[in-house]
Amino acid sequence: MALPVSADATPAAPVRSVSARHFVRLKLRVMGNNFRGQGWRIALFVGGALLGLWFAASGFFLFAAPGLTGDGRYAVLIAAAGGGLLVLGWLFLPLVFFGVDETLDPARFALLPLPRRTLVTGLFVAALISVPVLAVLIASLGLVLTAWSLGGWSAGLVGVVGVLVGLLLCVAASRAVTSAFATMLRSRRVRDLAAVLLAVTAALLGPLQVFGLAALREADWTRLTGVATVIGWTPLGAPWTVGIDVAQGRVWAAPVKLLITVVALGALLAWWSRSLESAMVGAASAGKAPVRRGVTGGAVAQLFPRIATWAGRDRFGALVAREARYWWRDARRRANLITIAVVGIFVPVLINVTGGDFAVEDGAGFTAAASDSSPVVVTISMVLVGVLAAVTLANQFGFDGSAYAANVVAGVPGRVELRARMTAFSLYVLPMLGFVAVVLSFLLSRPEWIGLTIGGLVATYGAGLAVNSLISVLGAYSLPETSNPFAMNSGAGLAKGLLTLLAMLVSVVVAVPMVVAAALLGDAWLWLALPVGAAYGLGAALLGAYLAGDVLDRRQPELLATVTPRR
Prior knowledge:
Helix 6 packs parallel to helix 12, helix 8 packs antiparallel against helix 9 and helix 13 runs antiparallel to helix 18. This protein is mainly α. The protein starts with 19 loop residues before the first helix and ends with a helix. The longest helix has 54 residues. The N terminus is likely disordered. The protein has a two-stranded parallel ribbon with strand order 1-4.
């Protein structure tokens, strides 16, 4: 609604039209504000940028290999396969691992009178200002070098055009998919399904990598070149192969492939434009809350989920109940639980079962012989599973965001806070770890190793809880307040990756005594692993809560300011 203006008032200055440069300036300013006074954040950003540049340099030399060697036989294969993996990586990896940069959250523009085309253009250009985009650009310039070496300056120039269009395709695909997910995830059932699918996808990346490497060792490269040629005529590989086509004499293919890419880019932007408007509206109503039958004890008792009905009606019990409910209902937390379940089964099976001997019986097909896995190898695999299970808590306060202010105002002691969070998380994780230990023992045909596997898991998990509790207090970072559960603030993806790596390394070091005991004590460790591991894990977790709790008491205001999203 326009404000009334008196007759003698000075006419208001005309409103300038908004362009893409305003979005770029806004993003840079928001990024600068996020780093202001946060030295650790700057250090993490610089470290992540250097890591991204290292990957970019590796990709550059991989793409440039045909040009540097002067052998163009596999140039199309490298360009189509590598470029296709880049596009698929932009589609799925940000969702599964580091989230999507939401420095400029589209929901913030919902009440502004901006045309949809202006908003899409501005957000799209702003999304190009990031370290991953720079890393992909540097890596894909290796294709330009290959085209230039094999076909001269004309092929190189066409390769530059293809690389730039391909980079735009990657960013557009990522934004369109995440915007569509944000729209669909208003439904509770769709959120549950998406969390399951994405967590399973994340967990299966390891098995796919193992099977992929095994397949490459026996691959028919001539046949793969034919497959790459087909991929080169799809949007996945078209922009990356145009320079190679010109270098190898197929000049007519370049404009056709560029047209395919431009059409795909336009379709993605149109899809993003259609889904962006509804994604900006916000979460829809979840409907009438279900009535819980059979619950007695009044309104307070109904606040305790079934998994935490045993908790006392005191401050500790209330914190356990709240955290247990959040771990089940929050899409981001629930996806982490699913990842723990899938990865917890895959890692020990990969290390122990697939390392066994296999035999082929006449007329009986393929059968697996008993594995030659040892207690030391089993303990090492349990260490990895326990570390991966506990590392989820490395940013446990980031899930709360500004809601953590309630705990600060209430003056919750740090030790009580951390013990309650550990307990609630363990209500879901410990049963999964027990299931993994039992299944692995029977897969190895060693049921007597159940105590060994459970002891190793509990010890490592408890040590990981201690380490990650301290890291969550000292290295927390904010998550954006948005309906998109995969969104991350600028720089938070780098912080998450580096903090996760640090937490895993320290947790492994703390869990080393379990591996040493398995190596030195022999068969006696089969009987001692369970009680010693349980005592070690419980003692480490309580000690971690004690030490980190004191740090939390001193840092509550700073922690709240850190995990509160910047507007």
